[in-house]
Amino acid sequence: MTEGQRICDYGDSTYRQDFWEGQGRDYEDAVERQVLKLLLPSRGSRLLEIGAGFGRITNEYHMFRQVVLLDYSLEQLQYARANYGDDGFLYVAADAYRMPFWPRAFDAATMIRVIHHFENFPAVIRQAREVLADDGTFILEFANKRNLKAMLRHLFGFSNWNPYTLDPIEFVELNFNFHPEYVQREIVKLGFETRRVVPVSWFRLGLLKRALPARLLAGLDSVLQRSGWAISPSIFLELRLPGAPNNRAVSSSADPLEILRCPQSGRPLRRDGEVLFSDCGTRWGIRDGVYDFRQALD
């Protein structure tokens, strides 16, 4: 764990059953898949899914030769591996503040419904930037502090926080909303260029979701997405790093050790059985096919 940073760990929680499966979120799921299809490159070598969880949307990355699922929860990744297997997929349990990858290992990365769990926004985005190759694509979704509902609640005095101030707001422990201008300021500092802004989940209201089919709501949502009005509950960004594709360091090798390195020392790793060794003396475990970098072995 990164010193000084709180970590949101779903561990062996029932998040999948309690929040997604049969919980009336078919509309949100459909909209997020719709936007991913719009923003993802048509093909690629290696994609990093930051905060992959149980792999809800991992099957949308079929155009990449390899998909690396990163999450802090070993249990969620074990569930994902049971669904997707090992052919073209790699499972890594690690702290996203301290990713165990070589620089420029990926030509694309996504972070969907995840950044709101991080109190240090710049630090985790800096990690994503480091592992992306030149001209790499980063699709980032964030919970919008300045959304229409929050503005109305503030107008009528029903909210104890101001949606117009730029500072992130922690409305529940390790759940943050971010102002669009704050997000834009921080990503520019890190060298990202914004290609597209897509506001989504315009109809995230229980009454509407119960009254209308998810497919219809998703279709209506796609119309409002074209407006560019950054007042929806959720916003997707298509970000790019400058540089020419021929300067990429992305390898086509399927060997995990080609992209993995020790997160403590940044040194190469070698494998012996179910243990990874770094020449700095640190050892890391492999548990049920998941490379576990959360805590070094004794």
How would you describe what is shown here?
- The protein contains 8 helices and 13 strands.
- The chain is of the alpha/beta class.
- An 11-stranded mixed β-sheet has the order 8-9-5-4-1-2-3-13-12-11-10, with helices on both faces.
- The longest helix is centred in the first third of the chain and has 14 residues, at 26-39.
- The protein is globular and about 60 Å long.
Q: Give the radius of gyration.
A: 19 Å
- Strand-residue proportion: 25-35%
Helix/strand/pairing category? alpha/beta
- Give the end-to-end Cα distance, rounded to a whole number of Å: 15 Å
* Rounded mean pLDDT score: 94
Poorly predicted runs of 5 or more residues: none
Strand adjacency order, main sheet? 8-9-5-4-1-2-3-13-12-11-10
Biggest β-sheet: count, sense, barrel? 11 strands, mixed
What letter string, H or E per element, gives the SSE order?
HHEEHEEHEHEEHEHHEEEEE
Shape: globular
Number of strands: 13
Helix fraction, binned, reads 25-40%
Count of DSSP helices? 8
